[in-house]
Structures are given as C-alpha cells and as structure tokens.
Specification:
alpha+beta
Length: 210
C-alpha cells in the first residue's frame, strides 16, 4: 500500500493551491509553507504558473484534493463515488457524507488527535475502540450511537496535548465530544453544510461522468 511521507505532504498542499491539513498543528502555524510563500506550485517552474489547465485537469485536481484530504487511495475513492450514486439524494452530498463518516475522520474531527495520519496509525495499531471493542479499520463507516474511544495507555499519552481539550475547540454538531472521558459519540448523520472542506464536488462528479 502506498503512503505519503512527511516531506511530501507540504508539496501536496502547494500543488492543490490550498491547505489540506495533512500535518496537524504545523498547518496552523507560521511554519506552514503556504503561510510563508503562498500557494506556489512545487518544482523549479512553480512560480511561473505554467499553461492554462484543461477542463479535465481542473476536474482531476478537484478529485485529487478530496482524496488527499481524506487519505484514501484511487480505487477506494471511486468505490465511494459508486456507492454514493446508489443512495437516495444528491450524489455529491452522499459522497462527502460517506467520506466524513470514516472512523479516522471522526477521530480527527472530534479533536482526539492532531492529524488524520496519526488517527490512521492509532487505528491500525488497535488503539481505538468502537463501542468498547478494538477496531483497526480506518475506513469503518461510523453509525449513529457509535462511541469511539482510546485504550487506557493511549488516552493517558494524548489527553493533554490534543485539540479537543482546548476551551475554544468545538466538534462538529453531529459528534458529541466528552472532554472529561476523552470519548466521542456519533449522535446524527453529518449534513453537507457542516462539512467545511473547500471541495468542489461537482467537478468530481464531472470527472467520473466522462
């Protein structure tokens, strides 16, 4: 399975032209390359801009951006799209909701970890519990009523350094974060308006409709 190294993450943000929040705290600090230099494309010719992108290139970039934000591979992302088409409602909304309900995304959005890559790592190493049982599948689709927590060792290691303990931190409305017990409960299905990522879903649909 392919993976994105730490050194490549900032290049991905610059290539996308915006922050993808792949490095957690660093993305909100002055060390972020986009904060320093702006969204200049990586490479020796990045500052020159280059030729005007085609319609296909624009659609591809939108799809790649969504993939990288949620940390999924090509085949998996296409499967989400195909599943979204079969559900009732708008395909774009369904796609975003399916991605948002992933276990690794819930752990991150609830403020239990600093980045999605750390969420994936903790899940794969059996440190995350769903309804009291260990689950090592990052793509698990969370359901209403699910309670997500860490094992005791992980809770003690991270409870003092994660975003969720900050007074001004607010989890999405569809998640109920218990800062005292360091757990989060899924209380509803996310709605499209609550998903804050700057992703043009229509371009993704156009890409797969070619």
């Amino acid at each position: 399975m392919s993976r994105i190294t730490l050194n490549a993450k900032c290049r991905l943000c610059r290539a996308a032209g915006s922050k993808l929040y792949l490095k957690g705290v660093r993305c909100n600090s002055s060390k972020c390359p986009i904060e320093k230099k702006g969204a200049v494309k990586p490479g020796m010719h990045g500052a020159k801009g280059g030729s005007k992108p085609t319609d296909y290139g624009i659609q591809l970039r939108a799809k790649q951006k969504a993939k990288r934000i949620y940390g999924v591979q090509e085949t998996q992302f296409k499967n989400y799209y195909l599943k979204a088409k079969k559900l009732k409602g708008l395909v774009g909304d369904n796609l975003m909701i399916l991605l948002e309900k992933r276990l690794d995304n819930v752990v991150f959005q609830a403020g239990l970890v600093l980045s999605k890559s750390l969420a994936k790592q903790l899940i794969s190493h059996n440190h995350v519990l769903v309804n009291g049982k260990k689950l090592n599948v990052s793509s698990y689709e969370t359901k209403i009523g699910d309670v997500i927590s860490f094992d005791e060792k992980t809770t003690n290691a991270y409870k003092d350094v994660v975003p969720g303990i900050e007074n001004d931190f607010k989890a999405p409305q569809w998640l109920d974060l218990n800062k005292k017990n360091f757990t989060v409960k899924v209380i509803s299905t996310p709605v499209r308006e609550e998903i804050g990522h700057d992703i043009d879903v229509n371009l993704i649909i156009e890409y797969y409709s070619r």
